[in-house]
Each structure stands twice: as structure tokens, then as C-alpha cells.
Description:
The protein is α+β, with helices and mostly antiparallel strands. The chain has one domain (2-169). The chain has six helices and ten strands, in the order E-H-E-E-E-E-E-E-E-E-E-H-H-H-H-H. The protein has helices spanning 14-27, 118-125, 131-136, 139-152, 154-160, 165-171, and strands spanning 2-4, 33-34, 37-38, 41-46, 50-51, 62-71, 78-90, 96-100, 109-112, 115-117. It is globular.
Amino acid sequence: MMALLVFALGATPMDLETLIDPAWKQIAPKPAVTSKGPGVMWNFRVAPPMPSEWPMTPKSTLVRWVYASGMDMQISDGQRVAGPWARVVTTADGTSKLEVLSKALEGNDIQGVKPISSTDADIVGKVFETDEALRAGDLATLKGPWCRWLRYNGVIAAKLKPKHQAFFTALACDVK
């Protein structure tokens, strides 16, 4: 059985959606209709938790970058991706705070999409459940889900890699 890869492969947890949605409504572009058809229909996406530093310390935070992807009817095998416009920072005690970084979407790259197996989708989905493994520094648990997520989300991953270079280096994913 095949599943269509949609960015991040996983629903935004309700508490994150509640936290992010008011800010998204302030910056979400309105779809425009042109002579070529409807414009890009944007939605916010949340990247998996990433460590503020690697290896993590008791004072480290988890960062979930908030970016946007958009369905463009002019593209048949991909979606538009804008860079991070906010981030959710979670402290060790579980307190989360939204930090808005930009009042507008920046960047407009294209991320290809393709069908993937349900097994791959399940593995990628686990990347959103890695908080404890990140805090414990458990690379063995992190590597599989993270390397798969990076494989299918290369555009946003490239934008985030400089912010988490030590973590991405430690993962040592062979992503092509």
C-alpha cells in the first residue's frame, strides 16, 4: 500500500495548532486568482523537534520550526515551500512558547512529492515523537526516523541545517 507524502507526515498536535493558528492568520497569504488559475494555497507546517544545541544539556530547549507549504496548481509533482516564519521553543519542563520571526513568508522553493510506502510513512511519522530520545542523546533511536524525514523534506531541511549543524552532523544521514 502506498501513501502520498505530505510535508511532515503527521498532524499538527492540537496544542501546537492552537498556539500557532492566531499568528498564522496574521501572515497567511490570501490565494489570488490569475489568468493561469488559482494562486498558491498556503498552509503552515511544523518541523519535528530539533535540539537547540547538540548534545543537549539540562538547559537545552527543543525547537519546532514553523514554515509554510503551498499547493500550486501549476506544479503537478511538488509543493511550494517558504522558509521558517516562527518557531515553538519548548523547555525541559514542557513549557512551549511561540516566537514569530517574520510577518511575511520568505522563499518560494519547490519540494517534490511522491508516493511512499506505508512502512516509510510510519517511520517518518516517528520523528515527531523523538523528544525523549533527543534529550537523552540517543542517536540510535533518532537516526532512522530523522534520516527518512530529511530524505523527504529536503527543501526545509536545507533551510534548517545551518541552525542545527552539530545535530545534523551527528545524525550522519546519507540523504540524496
